[in-house]
Amino acid sequence: MLLLAALAGPALATDAGASLSLIGVRSSSGHRPLHRGLIGWARFSTDRSFDVEAELAWGTAREDFLDVRIRTHLVRPAVSLSWSTGTRRAQVLGSAGVCLSLYTGGLDTLVVQARPGLKARIGVDVPVGEAWTLRWHFGLASRGLTADAETGLGLGRSL
Amino acid sequence: MSPLLLTLLACDPGTAGRYQAFVHQGDGDFAAEPRAISALSDPYRLDGELGTGRAGGTVGIDWSSGRAIYDEGKPLTVNYAVQDDVGEPLDMEALILFSLYGNLQDARDRLGDLDIDIGELFPMNIAVSPALPDPTMGAFPADNEAYVPGTNTMIVLPDLTSELPLAANTGVVFHEFGHGLFHYLTSGDVYGDRLLDLDQPAELTDGAGSLDEGFADMLGTLLTDDPAFISRSIVLPERDVTGDHTAAGVEVLPGEFTDGGVLATYDPYPLGTVFASVSWDLRIASDDPGRTLQWDAEAVQDWAVGEDLTVYRWLDALVAVVARDSPSLEDDLCRSIETRFADVWVVEQCP
Fold it and tell me: With an 8 Å Cβ cutoff, is B176 touching chain A?
């Protein structure tokens, strides 16, 4: 994050928002059971050709058999460099950066597994009124040697 | 919900003394608790003495030879952490996979205790969610468990639809392992051809299919001492071997299914359950499930080397084995066969 800040130079928050999201978290046998959650983001403009985007994703899922329950949570902060292009009617976004995945699960104990990784995302922003923006996004994030996928739809607001 | 463990960076958590797994409680119930799985040397890859798990891959049929083939998939990356020397599954699939491996270890150990030869069945392939030739299984991927003879592959489809996943159900894993044991006992080669290929008369191949299912149920019932082992996962009262199952009550017997068209398949389970019910009757009479399974296995071997592979000849072989080993049980066994196979088969040795 410090490196990104150094790259970006002075920054000013321009917009922020949140989306309802589905995160496909890679399981032991390679499936990606969906975790429902939220992703919040804030974008900072810089004096470079790119912006910096900070993001916090959270997703959760629950599986039950007999009297056994495993509830898993994934919390993933990320910092990315982002670019956008388009018209006043729609902006196409792309971003790439680093993330840290905090994954919890377990039966009788709470285990927190921390794995660094890389994250890339594409998205589309469509202005809704003067200050609001509708955003759809799709991203991939590595988590150790595995990778998760996520998508979401949400609202952003100019600051 | 504590203590808290933080694992940073390390992808492979290493081994543990015990692993959380579904464990059969002896009364037909199951509970998740730590258990030793000493055969599991690399939990992260589900690898050890009993075999190696792979994700995906393909199980298919070589149509030129009719043999099953298995193209293995990618290595598994089991999601768990080690805490207080216990392997803690971090998702339900890890819990199911640890349960499966523990169940396979129990199958090996219990059959070893009974001196039943299992040949080179271990290490076996463990295919987790492979692509399958059966389009119905592909279109409707349900929780399932299967064994593919000739490739020595255990298939696990861990989609989460059952009360207790089949791969975590000890009796079901014993049942599927029983197919591997049946293949070995009848063909003498874990990776060899089946005793009867598809060119044989349907009466023989259908019958062998039923005995295969019945013998697999014998492992499931006798090694768990639970006559309805499958019921914890799926409600199937017709597979409970304490029921009044008779061969005369089976809708279609081997060789009778001749006009069903190209998609017609013989259902081996009903007659298989009748065979397994005879075995359970013998278990009740002998009060010794282990000894009963030894007799069952010996009879399978004797039947397979006989000149007449009519499936009911297995009953003849079983009576001969029991009469030789424990003559006092012969009458009980004969009564069971006379009841369950009335109007279908008569064992000449029975009075």
Answer: no
Q: Is B19 on the interface with A (CB under 8 A)?
A: no
Angstrom distances, CA of residue A43 to CA of A46, A87, A106, B340: 10, 18, 35, 76
Residues 6+ apart with CB under 8 A from A20: A36, A37, A38, A152, A153, A154
Decide if B336 is inside a domain: yes
| Predicted confidence (pLDDT) at residue B195 exceeds the cutoff of 80 | yes
Please, are residues A154 and A135 in contact by the beta-carbon 8 Å criterion? Answer: yes
Within-domain flag for B86: no
Domains of chain A: which residue ranges? 2-154
- Best mutation target among A26, A27, A28 (most B Cβ atoms within 10 Å) is A28
Of the residues B19, B91, B155, the best mutation for testing chain A's interface (the one with the most A CB atoms within 10 Å of its CB) is B91
pTM score of the predicted model: 0.90
- The angle that helices B289-304 and B170-187 make with each other, rounded to 10 degrees, is 30
CB contact under 8 A, A65 and B163: yes
Q: How many domains does chain B have?
A: 1
Q: Is A73 on the interface with B (CB under 8 A)?
A: no
Residue B180 included in any domain? no
Chain B contact present for A86, CB below 8 A: no
- The residues of chain A scoring below 70 in pLDDT are 1-11
Instruction: Determine the CATH number of domain A2-154.
Output: 2.40.160.20
Alpha-carbon distance values, B309 to B22, B80, B217, B226, B346 (Å):
39, 48, 20, 30, 15
**Regarding beta strands A146-158 and B74-75, do their DSSP bridges make them parallel or antiparallel, or are they unpaired?**
unpaired
- pLDDT tier for residue B258 given thresholds of 50, 70 and 90: low
Phi, psi of B340 (to 5 degrees): -85, -25
Q: In this predicted model, what pLDDT tens digit does every residue of B260-286 receive, in sequence order?
A: 555 567 899 999 999 999 999 999 999
Contact B7 A29 (CB under 8 A): no
CB B8 within 8 A of CB A114: yes
User: Do B349 and B316 form a contact (C-beta atoms < 8 A)?
Assistant: yes
Does B289 reside within a domain?
A: yes
**Interchain pair A30, B8: CB under 8 A:** no
pLDDT at B257 > cutoff 80: no
pLDDT average, residue stretch B332-349: 96
Can you give the CATH number for the domain in which B331 is found?
1.10.390
- pLDDT attached to residue B3: 43
Give the domain range for residue B305: 195-351
